[in-house]
Design brief:
Layout lengths: L4 H9 L15 H4 L5 H4 L24 E14 L4 H9 L7 H11 L3 E16 L5 E16 L2 H9 L4 E2 L2 E2 L5 E2 L5 E4 L2 H5 L3 H4 L2 H4 L3 E21 L3 E23 L2 E8 L29 E14 L3 E15 L3 E5 L5 E2 L25 E5 L2 E4 L3 E9 L4 E10 L11 E11 L2 E10 L10 E7 L4 E7 L12 E12 L1
Antiparallel strand pairs: 1-2, 1-23, 2-3, 3-8, 4-5, 6-7, 7-14, 8-9, 9-10, 9-11, 10-13, 11-12, 12-16, 12-17, 13-15, 17-18, 18-19, 19-20, 20-21, 21-22, 22-23
Length: about 500
């Protein structure tokens, strides 16, 4: 078993026409379509990781005091290097083998560009809130996986073409020969060494310059509490805190600029990724002891938020999320910048690297040198959220929000996230939503989310579907293939 969670998510998504970049709303399908209102609008267990202060408000249905839900999903894939057809084929037919022409084309397409994938699956959540407001408690368990890559020009050739890569129009490597283990190994081209460019051009940091690759797979156990701090006839002020215990199955963070290579990795033995000289690593662990990849790191996170409500129309929310650390003590590696003398791979064989990190073993076979570590401590992908929403009429709510990354930890958004959204209550049981998003991990353009939520049984049951970018249905360039959905969400 190699792909586990992401394969299951991808298989589920095959049932719908479009795959949501879930970082902003996590798996909150009720908020995805109206992106721009999540910080002020989400409630119950869906506000965990967004704004726990919203637990201080009453549920929007009379006499309801609890919410329970299962199996809510958010998934997205976005690339400015691929068109929609290629991206969907890469996700669902990733085992199709590359020809040499395919490798050359992919190397050109990905040079200086990238790919972002985000999957969030909530196993279950429950919340209790006072019928008249004042306080609330919530808990949920979810799985999260983030994969982000922006690849420099030479790195793109190395990753896709392997020993067929070129530098300054010259082959980087000689034709491969067999090493003592019978594997193919390509030695650096002496013609490049003769130009006295070895030290300046053939270090790992220079060959990979402009490359950022990050991968994170975590399981979170989240709890939150919200309390009303002040209330009168017009104004309500609430605050909330959230706490989570986190297990990690995988972590990769590679950043390369000219003369500077910083890279860390810690991967569960269940992912079957092997590093060179693994036997020398004091934290090496090659045996997976469970059906799914076992956790090789754990830690804690903290959230805090505030919400302001004026005359039941104007809402303002501010929250800081994911303050904390993870500590890894198994299969831990740190990279060092070294000269590249050989390469032991002929590049990616297909797009399977999107779902299975094992193909990145090539980074440890001559291209990057890795040193085993006893442990590493990493920072969680913290962010600051600020949002405002307003009820224009009984049927229309509008809002906007910003999300600011507070660090560049794997799993965080790459830049400022900006969103506007609107929700229209077409019927008492039918809500339509839409909006516009710019920034975050969208590389080159705005996205236009849309969603539909159906409320049945006087608020007792919600189900719905949303996409982060409905215009992807009508265009090929820079696709955002996305889905956010839930069908088992109940109030009592």
């Amino acid at each position: 078993m190699k792909r586990y969670l992401l394969v299951l998510l991808a298989a589920f998504v095959l049932c719908v026409p479009e795959l949501v970049f879930a970082q902003a709303e996590l798996s909150s399908f009720t908020a995805t379509g109206k992106a721009g209102t999540a910080t002020t609008a989400v409630s119950d267990y869906q506000c965990l990781g967004i704004n726990p202060a919203n637990l201080a408000w009453k549920l929007p249905f009379d006499e309801k005091r609890g919410t329970i839900g299962f199996f809510e999903l958010g998934f997205s894939a976005h690339s400015d290097a691929m068109n929609k057809s290629t991206l969907k084929s890469a996700i669902f037919n990733s085992n199709d083998a590359f020809s040499n022409e395919d490798k050359t084309r992919a190397a050109l397409e990905f040079a200086g560009k990238g790919l972002s994938i985000n999957a969030d699956f909530m196993y279950g959540g429950i919340a209790f809130q006072s019928p008249k407001g004042g306080q609330g408690f919530a808990f949920n368990v979810r799985e999260r996986m983030q994969w982000y890559a922006k690849i420099g020009p030479t790195a793109s050739e190395l990753l896709f073409k392997g020993y067929r890569a070129t530098l300054n129009n010259l082959p980087l490597f000689l034709a491969p020969i067999a090493d003592i283990n019978g594997d193919s190994i390509a030695l650096i081209n002496p013609a490049l060494v003769d130009t006295n460019s070895l030290v300046n051009a053939l270090s790992a940091s220079n060959l990979l310059a402009g490359t950022k690759i990050s991968y994170s797979w975590t399981r979170e156990f989240n709890a939150g509490y919200g309390l009303e701090l002040y209330a009168d006839d017009d104004v309500q002020l609430g605050a909330g805190v959230g706490f989570r215990f986190i297990q990690s199955m995988g972590y990769v963070d590679v950043n390369a600029e000219r003369g500077d290579l910083r890279a860390l990795a810690a991967l569960s033995p269940g992912l079957e990724v092997k590093f060179a000289q693994q036997w020398l690593n004091p934290s090496a662990d090659t045996v997976n002891r469970g059906f799914i990849p076992e956790a090789i790191g754990n830690g804690f996170g903290f959230d805090a938020g505030f919400s302001f409500l004026y005359k039941d129309k104007l809402r303002v929310g501010v929250a800081v999320n994911n303050i904390g650390n993870l500590t890894y003590r198994s299969n831990v590696y740190r990279a060092y910048d070294s000269l590249v003398y050989f390469l032991k791979t002929d590049g990616f064989q297909n797009f399977d690297f999107i779902k299975d990190p094992k193909q990145f073993e090539s980074l440890g076979k001559g291209l990057i040198g890795w040193e085993g570590q006893k442990e590493i401590r990493t920072t969680l992908p913290a962010n600051l959220r600020m949002g405002v929403s307003y009820t224009l009429t009984e049927k229309v709510d509008v809002g906007g929000e910003l999300m600011v990354p507070l660090n560049n930890a794997p799993g965080n958004i790459g830049r400022l996230y900006q969103a506007l959204g609107v929700e229209y209550k077409l019927l008492p049981w039918l809500r339509l939503s839409g909006g516009v998003i710019y920034g975050g991990n969208f590389f080159s353009r705005a996205a236009f989310p849309a969603g539909i939520v159906i409320i049945a049984g006087d608020g007792s049951w919600d189900f719905g579907v949303a996409t982060r970018d409905f215009v992807t249905y009508f265009r090929q360039k820079s696709p955002i293939v996305s889905l956010s959905t839930g069908f088992l969400r109940f109030r009592f």
